[in-house]
Recover the amino acids of this structure.
């Protein structure tokens, strides 16, 4: 794999290779890279999990991280994304991790000769999140074939929903959406269901953050209304199958997508997702850098 830009570029074999390698890394089967490799993490949108778990992944692999902050860089003088990235390549970076608000920003970067890992492009895609979600499901169920997965919430603005519905469907899962009309996305060919009609039949409930920052008008859905109609609460939690899991990419709007007291409930794997994010990102770094290390 030369770059990781979207889930669409990956075959199911690619996804399973990366996820199985992440599981092996989690079991301690890895060594830091034998040669010096430099990486820069360019985050043009805020992040805690993606940015910091990449930093941990890079440190565990022995990579040298070149600190880059948009606020103190020449981006502030109007330098383009391409010129910024080409500069980092020119000074010796071996890979770039990029989060940017512009969908498919990476199409501007085709002239680069170093791997790009997409840490999220606007409402477009979030492939490293999708792969860590797939790893978490794989660890719990060992398969995707026939799993019933409902993705709930702000589908329209969610790059996680877009990446996961395609990938999980191709892996053999039955994927459904549940969302208020205002958050539905007609461009995605996925059936919408009433959460209460499926909650006792699903294996995975994947909650999505309400992305207030991407709404052009303030949503009229109140916290209480949203949780009672579309969120995880005690009544729905109690109806879950014994082995069902509850996921959320986080950050969580406590009391909205899920009640605060359920975030660490036994069926919630929200913090396991974050832990798996480090191993998944190590696996991705190994994969995109394999040619340089050969
Ligand atoms: N899930 C996720 O992408 O979190 P951050 O925005 O904190 O990176």
């Amino acid at each position: 794999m030369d770059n990781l830009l979207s889930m669409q570029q990956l075959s199911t074999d690619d996804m399973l290779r990366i996820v199985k390698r992440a599981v092996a890394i989690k079991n301690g089967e890895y060594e830091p890279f034998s040669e010096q490799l430099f990486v820069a993490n360019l985050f043009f949108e805020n992040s805690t999990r993606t940015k910091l778990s990449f930093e941990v992944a890079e440190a565990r692999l022995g990579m040298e991280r070149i600190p880059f902050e948009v606020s103190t860089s020449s981006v502030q003088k109007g330098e383009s994304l391409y010129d910024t990235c080409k500069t980092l390549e020119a000074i010796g970076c071996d890979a770039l991790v990029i989060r940017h608000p512009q969908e498919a920003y990476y199409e501007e970067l085709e002239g680069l000769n170093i791997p790009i890992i997409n840490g999220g492009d606007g409402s477009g895609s979030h492939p490293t999140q999708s792969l860590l979600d797939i790893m978490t499901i794989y660890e719990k169920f060992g398969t995707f074939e026939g799993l019933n997965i409902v993705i709930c919430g702000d589908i329209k603005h969610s790059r996680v929903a877009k990446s996961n519905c395609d990938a999980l469907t191709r892996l053999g899962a039955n994927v459904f959406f549940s969302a208020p009309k205002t958050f539905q996305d007609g461009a995605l060919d996925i059936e919408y269901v009433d959460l209460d009609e499926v909650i006792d039949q699903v294996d995975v409930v994947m909650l999505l953050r309400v992305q207030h920052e991407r709404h052009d008008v303030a949503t009229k859905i109140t916290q209480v209304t949203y949780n009672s109609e579309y969120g995880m609460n005690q009544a729905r939690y109690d109806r879950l199958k014994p082995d069902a899991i509850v996921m959320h990419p986080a950050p969580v709007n406590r009391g909205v997508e899920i009640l605060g007291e359920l975030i660490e409930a036994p069926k919630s794997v929200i913090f396991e997702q974050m832990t798996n994010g480090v191993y998944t990102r190590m696996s991705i770094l190994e994969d995109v850098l394999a040619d340089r290390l050969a």
